[in-house]
Amino acid sequence: MTAKDPETLRQQILDLAEQYGELTGTNTSFSPDDPRVSVSGKVVGGPEARLMTEAALDLWLTTGRFNDTFEGQLSDTFGLPWARTCNSGSSANLIAFSALTSPFAGPRKLEPGDEVITCATGFPTTVNPSLQTGMVPVFVDVEPETYNIDVSQLEAALSDRTKAIMVAHTLGNPFDLGAVMRFAEAHNLFVIEDCCDALGSTYQGQHVGTFGDLATLSFYPAHHITMGEGGAVLGASPGLRRAVESFRDWGRDCWCAPGADNTCGRRFQQTLGQLPTGYDHKYVYSHLGYNLKITDMQAAAGVAQMKRLDGFIADRKRNWQTLNTLLADLDEAFVRPKATANSDPSWFGYCLSIRDDRLDRTELLQALNAAGVATRLLFAGNLIRQPYMQGRAFRTIGDLTEADRVMTHAFWLGVHPGLRDDHLEYVSRVLHALVHNTPLPKTVPDHVAS
Fold first, then answer.
1. Domain extents in the chain
2. Start-end of H helices in 277-360
3. How distant is the alpha carbon of residue 330 from its chain centre?
4. Fold that domain 308-449 belongs to in CATH
5. What share of the chain is helix, strand, coil (3-state, %, to 5)?
6. DSSP secondary structure letters along 109-122
7. How far is CA 386 from CA 120, 131, 167, 172, 365, in A?
């Protein structure tokens, strides 16, 4: 072989890409001279650089072999028959919910005006698909400490138009799946589990995402694994799989993979809708869909990240527990979070709610951020208070007192795998100083400490 042999060059390029990724990948060290504790962040390096470069060298620019591998890894991890990737977790929620409006969902399929029970706190795109498809969200209050849907209000939320429940596992903490699934089965309701923040969490020893009819994931850099942008829908129903694929792939009726033709064996032999007999099945559309697929380079990053998943989950659990221990003596100031009963969360963040009303949340967060400790609110707070919800059709159960308190008192800190004990100890020292009004740690930048 010569140096110009394509396979030799390919291996040289891959080896160099991996070496470069190892040198320039995520730095997880803590710098006392410039303390920064991010609330989320990706951990990437040599493996991702190698596989993404390999995908680039394939010159296959759309979904391909790496995506097939990644979908297989996801379905194997969850023990479900299928997983289908898409371009974001928000798209995953839209696809999953839209699938319930399809004839493939059977006689229970959702129709405009049907109601969907959800939690009043959370991220907008758990709820937006209901609004976009003409359904009516029914907002139930949140439990303090777990920050999940208050299952005691489920019966009050039920009406003769209730058809589904779509709820997220907040910050990786599973909602009470026992209560939700009993209620859903008693009333013949669809359930979608938004697992975008909860990859690896379990309830009674079983992966979240495997209880309901469909589950969704996000692979944005903040989440448990990343491909930059990306998401997935998972399930067991063959009919819902067909619907998911169709909504993701332009709404087409055909299920051929990219580059494949006539999988059904009847490409030019069908009569569908008001189309002429024999109209090319590749251009028959049975749903109002979009192109929401990913590229194979994204999938290659996902394949590399899946090999890190167990370690990431362990890191998140350890970091959460470390913070919980370090902050245990601040219970007069904050309500600390707790795991839902019978669950083992793969934590996305560590949420605190201010108990001592002498603490002003805005001032506290500004001080934390100035000291290099990043924070986030619990997403949209009480969703019905958001500007875009004004004038929309929805119902609420009660006055959503706890959701309002989350909106005004809660915030969360990072526990992602890029953090080590030094980061978390620094967070603790800063919080203690701010609560007790004592000098900030010496590692705080001079312009902040002064």
1. 62-288, 308-449
2. 296-306, 309-326
3. 30
4. Aspartate Aminotransferase, domain 1 (3.90.1150)
5. 40, 15, 45
6. ---TT-EEEEESBB
7. 11, 14, 18, 23, 21
Q: What is the pTM of this model?
A: 0.95
- The two tokens of residue 18 are 């991996």
Indicate if the alpha-carbon torsion angle 102, 105, 106, 112 is positive or negative: negative
Q: At what angle do helices 238-248 and 89-99 cross, to 10 degrees?
A: 130
DSSP string across 122-187: B-GGGTHHHHHTT-EEEEE-B-TTT-SB-GGGHHHH--TTEEEEEEE-GGG----HHHHHHHHHHH
Pairing of strands 410-414, 349-354: antiparallel
Query: Tokens 């009516």 identify what position?
Result: 136
∠ CA 419-365-316, rounded to 5°: 25
pLDDT digits (tens, 9 = 90+) for 361-408: 999 999 999 999 999 999 999 999 999 999 999 999 999 999 999 999
pLDDT of residue 2: 56
Beta-bridge partner residues of 206: 203
Is 223 one of the catalytic residues? Answer: yes
* C-alpha span between 399 and 410 (Å, rounded): 18
**CATH for 62-288?**
3.40.640.10
Query: Measuring CA to CA, which residue among 26, 338, 335, 366 is closest to residue 171?
Result: 338
Model confidence pLDDT, tens digit, residues 150-166:
999 999 999 999 999 99
Is 369 in a helix, a strand, or coil?
helix
- Closest by CA position to 24, among listed 10, 12, 37, 42: 42
Active-site residue, selected from the candidate residues 223, 287, 409, 416: 223
